[in-house]
Amino acid sequence: MAVCVGIDVSKAKLDVAVLVEGKIKRTKVVSNDTAGFVQLLGWLESHVPGGVNTSHVCMEASGVYHEAVATFLYDHKVRVSVVNPLQIKRYAEAKLMRCKSDQADARLIAQFAAAESPPPWQAPPMSLRQLQALVARLDTLLGMQRSELNRLQTAHEAVQPSIQAVLDSLKEAIEQVREQIRRTVDDDPDLKRRSELLESIPGLGERTIPQLLAYIGSPERFTTVKALAAYAGLNPAPRSSGSSLNVTHGTSRHGHRQLKRILYFPAMVAGRFNPVVKAFWERLQEQRKPGKVIVVACMHKLLSLVYGVLKSGKPFDSRLSSA
């Protein structure tokens, strides 16, 4: 039986627990960076019977924080599983486990891996990794640009030239990264094909499409549109306690926050210009749904159109996409 390793991932560190024959044998804490990954690999090689490549490492999907360590281990031929945090929560509830700490979570994840044997995770191909890095960098640069623009509005005239110089530099860097994104997509036949499919959907533009390609990755890893919606955190979040029983309020607090965030404005645009989303929007208005509910529902609808064209390999057709 494979040795199971649970990793509780946070922004700064990784809490690790090694489970051998049903018992936790070793624990470790390393930094969540390249130096920590190298340390982790060496430590596992020393403490896993038969070597690290005989182990099964499991971790929760934790926004973007798990991606680097999962990819590092995958590249070193380690079997890795990345699971929905809700699965771990449900497993803990079934086992009546109440203790809550990073180390306890690592132990719990290792036990879950041994009991459930979750499927292996696959790292994205190098071209997609490059696109993901560029999209993340562009998002960072745009955030820096917004901050400097806000400072410029209230800055003393003595520092305005300095702020403007930073803005000019950021503008150049942003355009360079955007050009790199365009080249990365154009140079990869698979990414280019997917990009062209997404271009057929009214409401999606030049900025949103590379983000969707980066955040969704391979569409084949989602068996249904429901699975993709859950990944994005756009699945309904029921509340079944207190004075309001079995009522749905908003969406899940879990999921890929960036993917959810970037769908907001495209859904607004699609509500005006995409015939399928527009008809859906109007139908919800006739039902007197609150504005926020309508926007979130149309984000979900737009994501379902994205899933449809990517899975089918066929451009958007409003006649086939109407629901």
First CA to last CA: what distance? 48 Å
What percent of residues adopt helix (DSSP H or I)? 55-70%
User: What's the structural domain tally?
Assistant: 3
Which strand order spans the largest sheet, edge to edge or round the barrel?
Answer: 3-2-1-4-5
Low-confidence stretches: 238-249
Mean pLDDT rating: 90
What is the architecture of the largest domain at the second tier of CATH? 2-Layer Sandwich
The total strand number stands at: 7
Which strand-content bin applies to the residues? Answer: 5-15%
Structural class: alpha/beta
Following the backbone from N to C, one meets helices and strands in this order, namely: EEEHEHEHHHHHHHEEHHHHH
Radius of gyration: 22 Å
The level 1 CATH classification of the largest domain is Alpha Beta
* CATH topology descriptor of the largest domain: Nucleotidyltransferase, domain 5
The 3D shape can be described as globular
User: Please, what is the CATH homologous superfamily of the largest domain?
Assistant: ATPase, nucleotide binding domain
What is the tally of helical segments? Answer: 14
Strand count, sense and barrel status of the largest sheet are: 5 strands, mixed
Structure description:
The protein contains 14 helices and seven strands. The chain has helices at 34-47, 67-75, 85-94, 102-116, 126-154, 160-187, 189-199, 208-216, 225-232, 257-262, 264-273, 275-286, 291-312, 318-321; strands spanning 3-9, 13-20, 23-31, 55-60, 79-83, 236-239, 247-251. The N and C termini lie far apart (48 Å). The chain has 323 residues and is α/β, with parallel strands linked by helices. The longest helix is centred in the middle third of the chain and has 29 residues, at 126-154. The chain folds into three domains: 3-116, ATPase, nucleotide binding domain (Nucleotidyltransferase, domain 5), CATH 3.30.420; 126-187; 210-321, no CATH class. A hairpin with a 3-residue loop joins β1 (3-9) and β2 (13-20). α6 packs across α7 (189-199), α9 (225-232) packs across α13 (291-312) and α12 (275-286) packs antiparallel against α13.
